[in-house]
Write a structure and sequence with these properties.
Number of strands: 8
Distance between the termini: 8 Å
Keywords: Isomerase
Number of helices: 11
Number of domains: 1
Organism: Novosphingobium chloroacetimidivorans
Structural class: alpha/beta
InterPro entries: IolE/XylAMocC-like, Xyl_isomerase-like_sf, Xyl_isomerase-like_TIM-brl
GO molecular function: isomerase activity
Radius of gyration: 17 Å
Protein name: Sugar phosphate isomerase/epimerase
Order of helices and strands: EHEHEHEHEHEHHEHHEHH
CATH topology: TIM Barrel
């Protein structure tokens, strides 16, 4: 049975302990946690670890390592360390470095730090970042040349970046440690309108089967056993379900209904 994880983005206004509780009560197999290195403390790690131990949940990912010209690697290294300590399978990474070489250099440093642990460093592409599409992400990972590096596929970013299902199907399965999943409207924001792109990504996602993305084809293009992080950032869901468990439950039920017996 395919592992389904509650992405932290489903509950952006709630803390890590609320996400763990909601994921467990809703019946997810795993959760993802948002870790802000500026505010996350050793006490937060202890509390999150305890909360996870009290459930049957796996920790699929922690996020986000956002590589930026004005951010030192030390902050990102802290997130790697927290992910390792919590037993996360992945850390999500995006980059705003205009130079792909710098992205590769810093990603390689983080991969070396995670070497020998359970953690994969997954590079997400999207038109809101400097790594705008799958081709660019794979080029960076080729330069990194480290087994810890992975590529993260999210249907909304696949669609908005012009990446094709065929390109997704051609990814080396060894580079896919997990994937994100959601649906979205067919109308695409202007690729150079950053505010519209962000609004699309954090407010307008839809439940699986309720949008216009080629989800069935994308699911078939991915490895059959790949874990799915249900990354359903939606203003409509936040308004309809202010309670975190109710929201998580609605997301899981809709996802399972769409997946069916597969």
């Amino acid at each position: 049975m395919r592992k389904l994880s509650l992405a932290s983005g489903v509950l952006p206004e709630f803390g890590a302990l609320d996400v763990v509780r909601a994921g467990a009560e809703a019946g997810f197999d795993a959760v993802g946690l948002w870790v802000d290195p500026d505010s996350w403390s050793a006490a937060d790690t202890i509390a999150a670890k305890s909360a996870l131990r009290g459930t049957d949940l796996d920790l699929l990912d922690v996020e986000v390592v956002w590589l930026k010209p004005d951010t030192r690697l030390d902050a990102h290294r802290k997130l790697i360390d927290v992910g390792v300590e919590l037993g996360a399978a992945n850390v999500l990474c995006v980059s705003s470095h205009p130079d792909a070489g710098t992205t590769a250099e810093q990603l390689a440093a983080l991969c070396r730090q995670a070497e020998g642990t359970q953690l994969r460093v997954a590079l997400e592409f999207g038109i809101f970042t400097a790594v705008r599409d799958l081709r660019a992400a794979l080029a960076v990972i080729e330069r990194v040349a480290h087994p810890t590096a992975a590529v993260l596929v999210d249907p909304i970013h696949v669609d908005r970046s012009g990446t094709t299902v065929a390109e997704v199907a051609a990814i080396d399965p060894a580079l896919l440690s997990y994937a994100q999943f959601c649906d979205a409207p067919g109308a695409r924001p202007g690729p150079n309108d950053f505010d519209a792109v962000i609004h699309d990504a954090i407010d307008l996602r839809r439940q699986c089967g309720e949008g216009a993305l080629p989800l069935k084809a994308l699911l078939e293009a991915l490895p059959a056993d790949i874990p799915l992080s249900i990354e359903l950032r939606s203003a409509a869901l936040r308004e309809a379900y202010p309670d975190p468990t109710a929201r998580a439950t609605a997301v899981l039920q809709a996802t399972r209904a769409w997946l069916g017996p597969r």
